[in-house]
């Protein structure tokens, strides 16, 4: 199979199910941003970090492929004529969301409580987490907009929301593990 098909040369692409839409369609923006997020998470996973984090990040990447498939499916063609679902993969589950929550709880147990916002940075790996977090928030905004127009599985949006929280906590935990300084944001006083 060739990578290039030339079918998108006029600015359209096919959703899962065959429907063609413009490449700037909100659905394409949504799953494209999930794909971008997945790449950023791969960059974090490639860092010199604990294998536990790498394993969790690999699981997250798997779930992001699922989210991409959900978002790439035309809702009008999600169910086949025989009544079966077009996507024959496990959807995002409450267990997926709970796994992120448990990972956050475990990491936070060894961190000092937050008293201020922190400036992103302090170590390259930590910065990669903050970039992934902000891309995740953008993905969430786009998916939320898409969900308003064409609702999809609620757990999908919940997972994206929880994932940005996870990436923030991971950034804090990696700051701690790497002994990087966490710089508090102290607003300047008006003069």
Report on the architecture of this protein.
By secondary structure, the chain is mainly α. The protein contains 5 helices and 2 strands, in the order ββααααα. Strands 1-2 form a two-stranded antiparallel sheet. Strand 1 and strand 2 form a beta hairpin. Helix 1 packs antiparallel against helix 4 and helix 4 packs antiparallel against helix 5. It starts with 11 loop residues before the first strand and ends in a 14-residue tail after the last helix. The mean pLDDT is 91.
Radius of gyration: 19 Å
Unreliable runs: none
Report the end-to-end length measured between terminal Cα atoms: 65 Å
**Count of runs of 4 or more consecutive helical residues:** 5
Instruction: Please identify the structural class as seen in this structure.
Output: mainly alpha
Shape: elongated
Helix content: 55-70%
Write out the strand line-up for the largest beta sheet, numbering strands in chain order.
Answer: 1-2
Beta fraction: under 5%
Biggest sheet: strands, sense, closure? 2 strands, antiparallel
User: Could you spell the SSE succession in H and E letters?
Assistant: EEHHHHH
Average pLDDT works out at 91
**Total number of β-strand segments?**
2
Fold blueprint:
Layout lengths: L11 E3 L5 E3 L3 H20 L5 H21 L22 H15 L15 H26 L4 H24 L14
Antiparallel strand pairs: 1-2
Helix pairs in contact: 1-2, 1-4, 3-5, 4-5
């Amino acid at each position: 199979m060739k990578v290039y098909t030339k079918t998108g040369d006029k600015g359209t692409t096919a959703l899962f199910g065959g429907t063609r839409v413009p490449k700037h369609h909100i659905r394409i923006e949504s799953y494209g941003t999930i794909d971008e997020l997945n790449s950023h998470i791969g960059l974090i996973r490639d860092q010199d970090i604990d294998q536990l984090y790498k394993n969790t990040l690999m699981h997250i990447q798997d779930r992001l492929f699922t989210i991409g498939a959900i978002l790439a499916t035309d809702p009008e063609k999600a169910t086949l004529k025989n009544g079966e679902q077009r996507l024959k993969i496990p959807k995002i589950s409450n267990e997926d969301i709970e796994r992120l929550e448990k990972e956050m709880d475990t990491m936070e147990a060894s961190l000092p409580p937050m008293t201020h916002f922190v400036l992103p940075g302090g170590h390259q790996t930590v910065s990669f987490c903050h970039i992934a977090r902000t891309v995740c928030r953008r993905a969430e905004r786009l998916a939320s907009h898409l969900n308003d127009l064409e609702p999809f599985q609620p757990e999908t949006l919940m997972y994206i929301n929880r994932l940005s929280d996870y990436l923030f906590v991971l950034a804090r935990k990696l700051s701690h593990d790497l002994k990087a300084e966490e710089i508090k944001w102290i607003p300047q006083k008006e003069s």
